[in-house]
Design brief:
- By secondary structure, this protein is mainly beta.
- The chain contains 6 helices and 34 strands.
- Strands 4, 31, 32, 33 and 34 form a 5-stranded antiparallel beta sheet that branches.
- The protein is globular.
- InterPro entries: Beta-prop_DCAF12, DCAF12, WD40/YVTN_repeat-like_dom_sf, WD40_repeat_dom_sf, WD40_rpt.
Length: 453
């Protein structure tokens, strides 16, 4: 989990330089190759090989191994004396808390709000989230106070007319954390706010003709949105707009730089920006993944997914690995070939994967049964508990609220209700996790939110 380079001040070898470490390394590599070479009844569809299968390592590589300590005490000492060559795994804190079953849930009361669809941490103490009833809310984890941020009106909004609530489906923060993009009052438009004050900046309008389902920032100025109308729009929020200060908060209207149809798609459901390959990945409800160039904003290719049922969430790892939440499994795709690397089957039948995210080498998935599961990408299996090795780590959400409904009340005695986890997000330290959602049936009104720490 931690790594520190140890170089001798006196003598020839460092304190962690032992020749048996090289022997142990060779034995592990040999065992791994032996495991990989075994023929299974059902071979993998996609196999990746290391750069070299040679058992011999160069002298430079051996010295590198011998001078590298994975002891956490050495990492702490290196940090104290400000050595340059030390690092710690991004998911170290969350992995330790999860495997030792230290996460405890604090339920959050949301009143009469309906279903939370998206969320992001604004700071160490604030979480912003959007609901199906078109409310943009900020929750303070210290004071437990909820504040509503006014939705921004566009020029095509009829004043005083109540619109149909179809929800805020996306909340995205730019890389420098100076701007927040989300849905406007008219859910065919986008709204941009300044951080950390949440003052209005602008409304992007007249691009989409149906609900905006997702957005992703390419950098601090350029934003891409995807809609149910199968269109994708490119927007630019300039530094002049973002830096403008006025006594009375007002916002301007902007138009899309480019509006293009996502070919071979039916309703663009999810978007993500793959920084490693400078490409935009779009997921459509007809079971396709579409790849666009972020530099030219042109569609490069589309690929049919193995399953066309309930592909509703998409995430990308820093290395470029894609994760797609399906009805009964999470599909991992290699971004270079779009070939399936692995189908991570759900441990609960028929649960449906509703949210997915990467935190280091841990893939977190939220299900339609109120359960969060954690898949260890390095180990190739669900995260095991250190308390009880016979079980895997899962977090089970509290029930939240379901508002009175005749059909629900009639069946309440015969059904076991659990909320769907439509969104989850880690804070910057990885030691706190916000989860939210609500009832899965479209006709049911209710909400769920919880803070795990």
């Amino acid at each position: 989990m931690s790594k520190a380079k140890i170089y001798p001040i006196y003598g020839r070898t460092s304190s962690c330089s032992f020749k048996q470490r090289l022997e142990e390394r060779r034995n592990k590599a040999k065992a791994f190759r032996l495991e990989q070479s075994r023929k299974t009844d059902k071979p993998e569809d996609f196999i990746m090989y290391e750069d070299s299968d040679s058992e011999e390592e160069t002298l430079t590589c051996q010295n590198e191994v011998l001078n590298t300590s994975y002891n956490f005490v050495d990492y702490m000492k290196s940090r104290e004396i400000d050595r340059k060559f030390y690092s710690v795994s991004k998911d170290y804190g969350s992995r330790h808390i999860l495997t030792h079953e230290m996460f405890k849930e604090t339920p959050i009361t949301l009143g009469n709000m309906n279903k939370v669809f998206c969320s992001q941490w604004l700071s160490d103490r604030q979480v912003v989230f959007g609901t199906k009833c078109n409310k943009l809310m900020v929750y303070d984890v210290i004071t437990h106070k909820l504040d509503q941020i006014p939705s921004l009106l566009s020029s095509r909004d009829p004043l005083g007319v109540e619109q149909q609530h179809c929800g805020i489906h996306s909340v995205q923060i730019n890389p420098s954390r100076t701007l927040l993009a989300t849905g406007a009052r008219n859910t065919c438009d986008i709204a941009v706010y300044r951080l950390p004050t949440l003052d209005p900046v602008c409304v992007g309008e007249n691009a989409h003709k149906d609900w905006v389902f997702d957005m992703c920032w390419l950098d601090d100025e350029f934003l891409v949105s995807g809609s149910r109308d199968t269109k994708m729009a490119l927007w630019r929020i300039t530094s002049d707009m973002a830096d403008r200060r006025m006594d009375i908060p007002v916002h301007c209207s902007i138009s899309a730089l480019s509006l293009k149809e996502c070919r071979n798609s039916q309703k663009v459901r999810a978007l993500t920006f793959n920084k490693s390959y400078q490409e935009i990945a779009a997921l459509s409800l007809n079971g396709y993944i579409h790849i666009w160039s972020a530099e030219t904003f042109k569609q490069k290719l589309s690929r049919k997914l193995p399953s066309a049922q309930e592909n509703v969430c998409l995430a990308v790892q820093d290395t470029g690995l894609y994760a797609i939440g399906c009805r009964s499994y999470t599909l991992l795709l290699d971004s270079r070939t779009l070939q399936p690397v692995k189908k991570v089957s759900s441990r609960y039948t028929g649960c449906g994967i509703r949210s997915a995210s990467f935190h280091g080498d841990i893939l977190t998935v939220g299900t339609g049964l109120g359960v969060l599961m954690f898949y260890d990408l390095k180990a190739g299996k669900y995260l095991d508990s250190s308390i009880n090795s016979s079980r895997t780590v899962v977090l089970k959400a509290s029930k939240g609220n379901v508002f009175p409904d005749e059909e629900f009340n009639d069946n309440a005695q015969n059904m076991k209700y659990s909320p769907s986890i439509y969104t989850h997000c880690y804070d910057s330290s990885g030691t706190r996790l916000f989860t939210a959602g609500g009832p899965l049936p479209v006709t049911l009104i209710g909400n769920y939110a919880g803070l795990w720490q």
